[in-house]
Design a protein that fits this description.
The structure holds 2 protein chains of 2 kinds. Chain A contains 7 helices and no strands. By secondary structure, chain A is mostly helical. Chain A has one domain: Four Helix Bundle (Hemerythrin (Met), subunit A). In chain A, α5 packs antiparallel against α6. The radius of gyration of chain A is 20 Å and the shape is elongated. By secondary structure, chain B is mainly α. In chain B, 65% of the residues lie in helices and 0% in strands. In chain B, α1 packs antiparallel against α2. Classes of the chains: A mainly alpha, B mainly alpha. At the A-B interface, α1, α2, α4 and α7 of A face α1, α2 and α3 of B.
């Protein structure tokens, strides 16, 4: 039974005749719960950053360190990659191999561009003596932004594995479900980034 | 019995009503792009009354998160989305507890913490 048929039945059949939910729904819901708990980790890091962001210990402050132009480029990379990831996911669900590889490859390129900007920023800051051990503000900054960057790195590794699975296993239901989870993971990273650029970069004072 | 069609729901991000439609992503991208540009403009311009800028940034960020949830995650208040929607509400509740709870407690501790002068007095 396809998901569409199932929803059709879910709407019209009595509850006792609906049967167990299809695997796509169970897997998607379970992954959604994981994403929510992942976002709670980020909430704790955001709280730590908000508490510590004023403790400069005589070190450089946010506005002295941050380059808004670069942050805007990073934001655009992630936002466009969310769309290419969505298109790739649709292509996977429609079993169209060409567009699936094309859009997912674009997602990888945009993710790498994001990571390139972020590592360049970190490297420049550390070279200027603003490393994570300089002040409580910078410790919290590297922990929060670095955790997001690690998530992006993990996501890219996952996407490469998924493309290898697509090449070897083809459009099996199992592979398509994993692509659903990946798409959700990638969109969640973009949501966390909204918080990062608003609170850390634009809210710096 | 059929009043409860929402019993098991559908997966987040896999809204069958939007399957095969790129429109949702394009509309979401356009809205998110406008909100992002508005955020960066609000933070950089001097045209807006300074103390109101953080509030404006917060509103724009929450609006953009809503846009992402609706157009990228396809989360809605539809009957088959009840499970996803309720767990999202619970997640937001926990996030709020952690962030605002930490801020209140730490501000309070900061307020009550003895200054260096107090500590010197205690040693005498």
């Amino acid at each position: 039974m396809t998901s569409a048929e199932w929803v059709e039945r879910a709407v019209y059949a009595p509850l006792s005749e609906q049967g167990p939910a299809p695997k796509e729904v169970v897997v998607g819901f379970g992954f959604w719960l994981f994403l929510l708990s992942d976002i709670i980790i980020f909430a704790a890091l955001f709280a730590a950053y908000a508490v510590l962001s004023g403790n400069l210990a005589g070190g450089p402050s946010g506005p002295e360190l941050f380059d808004r132009q670069r942050v805007f480029t990073e934001t655009l990379c992630l936002l466009v990659s969310s769309v290419t990831c969505g298109f790739g996911y649709l292509a996977v669900q429609q079993r169209r191999a060409g567009p699936a590889y094309l859009w997912m490859f674009a997602t990888i390129v945009l993710g790498l561009l994001f990571l390139k900007q972020e590592t360049a920023e970190f490297a420049a800051m550390v070279a200027a003596g603003a490393g994570p051990s300089r002040s409580a503000f910078l410790s919290a900054f590297y922990t929060l932004v670095g955790t997001h960057g690690l998530h992006v790195t993990t996501g890219l590794a996952w996407l490469i594995v998924m493309l290898a699975q697509l090449a070897t296993l083809g459009f099996q239901p199992m592979v398509r479900r994993r692509f659903l989870c990946f798409a959700l993971f990638w969109h969640a990273l973009d949501i966390v980034w909204i918080g990062v650029f608003t609170i850390v970069y634009l809210g710096a004072h | 019995m059929s009043e409860h069609p929402e019993a098991q729901g559908s997966a987040p991000g896999a809204d069958v009503r939007l399957h095969g439609s790129r429109r949702s992503y394009i509309v979401g991208f356009a809205a998110a792009l406008i909100l992002t540009i508005a955020s960066f403009a609000a933070a950089s311009t001097h045209l807006i009354y300074g103390p109101s800028v953080p509030v404006l940034l917060g509103v724009l960020a929450i609006a953009q998160m809503g846009v992402h949830l609706v157009f990228f995650f396809h989360i809605s208040s539809a009957p088959d989305q009840t499970n996803n929607f309720l767990s999202l509400a619970f997640g937001i509740f926990i996030v709020g507890l952690i962030v605002f709870g930490s801020l209140i407690i730490m501000a309070n501790l900061n307020h009550m913490a003895p200054t260096m002068e107090d500590l010197m007095k205690m040693q005498r």
